[in-house]
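User: Can you recover a sequence for this backbone? Please restate the input before giving your answer.

Assistant: Of course. Working from this structure:
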């Protein structure tokens, strides 16, 4: 009897210490990412298009977040969440599969404020906007919307920069190589679109300095870095094409022939010249402002701490996230609190790279990194075996609590492999408290309420902020839910800061539930199994 008890104890001990499990097969995720051409590939191969994408949203509003993945050379796929831990290929997947095109990133947003999130897909060639038909299918409205930018798009981000209640869009384009010379930057510039509110968009890229648009963009995020309640713009560029550095545009409001964006990259200390690939934004040190982490190639990744005065400091080495090797390439990345202890942890997707750039098969297996936030400004790397990771060529990364158990899960895109879904099974994450918020705008605030900031103050004195955004990492769309770990504490108050300057405060909010915050009220629902 004792040996059996000991064996059971050992089994549960191992289970408790495994943070994430690969549940792809069980969940029914079978779509593939293919980027190495062979005779069966449905579309032409181009060595210069390094792209991957995954995006989460409850497109049919049944209460369970669904998953869209891009295949590059293979068709894209939309998976409907069944609510029992498994997914089924959506009956509308064919409308979004784009089998004759090469797709990279993807991101959901309700661009027309009708209450149903729409899908923007980034391609080598014309990008596509699909309007959500009330959960009953999708219509390609790219032409009438004017969003068919032709380039090699990698990441897109939605945000209402002029606060007119309609979501605008920024698209990063990496390069026109190898179809053009590496110095022909003008054919691959990024694009800024203004939402005209009637279903169409206007190219307003002219609001930005032309020379600062030519940096081979890989990642972008709308983010209120200076806490003045308007959305600024940060772009991560790849210096291998044009070494202009990363670019931070400060939103300075009306004027300048329409709207003023000021390049503050250098004065803010945010102009690093890196082989930039992915971008994470979040308040990792819980000091009330948003910090930046971006991935790199064959050089150390970079963590910029927001000093709260409009400037950033490079704290990469001090924080212990200076992942550095001459063979590694960092790709998708995000902050998220995997163990619900109240401190944002950090994930980095990584591949290796061959010495010959641009050759088929250039990516090979490498270890991803999961960093645990120690709460003192530093991070500790987690043993790969404890988060279910094996050396794989990982490029894409996105997060969602797909099973609504209060622990954040993630999807990975393995280069030239099957897409993967990892379920969060962290023991501490199950023991600790949490709370999550969905947001719904109205009036002068777009329906998705992107850019809205929520602060949670717990009864142990910890104060955390999250800002809602659509588009970040690398070609990814995380679930549009603000998730807070609480440790063993309870919620003391919740403060909501809308972009139009309104503030709402709520007290006596119970932990371990998901809440919907509108302009008028907060409604909460405790999750099953928590």
């Amino acid at each position: 009897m004792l040996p059996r008890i000991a064996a059971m104890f050992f089994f549960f001990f191992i289970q408790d210490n495994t943070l994430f499990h690969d549940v792809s097969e069980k969940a029914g995720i079978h779509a593939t990412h293919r980027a190495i051409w062979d005779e069966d590939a449905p579309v032409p191969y181009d060595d210069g298009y390094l792209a991957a994408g995954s995006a989460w949203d409850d497109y049919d509003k049944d209460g369970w977040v669904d998953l869209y993945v891009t295949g590059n050379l293979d068709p894209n796929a939309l998976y409907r969440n069944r609510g029992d831990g498994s997914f089924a290929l959506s009956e509308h997947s064919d409308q979004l599969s784009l089998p004759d095109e090469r797709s990279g990133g993807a991101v959901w947003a309700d661009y027309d404020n009708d209450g149903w999130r729409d899908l923007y897909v980034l391609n080598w060639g014309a990008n596509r906007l699909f309007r959500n038909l009330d959960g009953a299918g999708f219509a390609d409205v790219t032409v009438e919307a004017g969003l068919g930018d032709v380039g090699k798009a990698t990441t897109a981000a939605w945000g209402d920069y002029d606060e007119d209640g309609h979501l605008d869009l920024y698209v990063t384009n990496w390069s026109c190589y190898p179809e053009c010379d590496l110095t022909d930057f003008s054919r691959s510039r990024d694009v800024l679109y203004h939402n005209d509110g009637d279903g169409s968009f206007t190219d307003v890229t002219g609001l930005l300095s032309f020379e600062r648009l030519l940096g081979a963009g890989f990642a972008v995020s709308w983010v209120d870095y200076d806490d003045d309640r308007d959305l600024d713009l940060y772009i991560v560029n790849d210096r291998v094409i044009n070494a202009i550095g990363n670019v931070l545009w400060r939103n300075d409001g009306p004027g300048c022939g329409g709207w003023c964006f000021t390049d503050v990259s250098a004065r803010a200390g945010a102009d690093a010249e890196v082989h930039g690939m992915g971008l994470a934004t979040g308040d990792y040190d819980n000091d009330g402002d948003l910090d930046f982490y971006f991935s790199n190639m064959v050089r150390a990744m970079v963590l910029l701490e927001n000093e709260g005065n409009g400037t950033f400091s490079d704290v990469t080495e001090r924080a212990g996230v200076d992942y550095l090797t001459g063979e590694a390439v960092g790709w998708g990345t995000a902050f998220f609190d995997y163990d619900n202890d109240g401190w944002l942890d950090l994930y980095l997707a990584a591949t290796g790279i061959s010495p010959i750039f641009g050759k088929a098969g250039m990516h090979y297996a490498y270890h991803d990194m999961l960093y645990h936030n120690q709460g003192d400004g530093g991070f500790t790397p987690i043993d790969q075996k404890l988060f279910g990771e094996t050396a794989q060529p990982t490029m894409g990364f996105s997060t969602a609590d797909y099973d609504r158990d209060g622990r954040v899960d993630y999807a990975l895109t393995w280069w030239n492999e099957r897409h993967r879904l990892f379920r969060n099974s962290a023991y501490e994450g199950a023991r600790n408290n949490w709370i999550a918020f969905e947001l719904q705008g109205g009036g002068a605030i777009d329906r998705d309420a992107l850019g809205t900031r929520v602060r949670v103050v717990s009864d142990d004195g910890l104060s955390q902020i999250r800002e809602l955004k659509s588009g970040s990492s690398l070609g990814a769309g995380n679930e549009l839910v603000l998730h807070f770990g609480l440790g063993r504490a309870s919620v003391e108050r919740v403060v909501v800061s809308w972009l139009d300057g309104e503030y709402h405060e709520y007290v006596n909010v119970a932990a371990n539930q998901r809440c919907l915050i509108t302009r008028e009220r907060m409604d909460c629902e405790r999750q099953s199994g928590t």
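That completes the design. The first strand starts at residue 20 and ends at 22.
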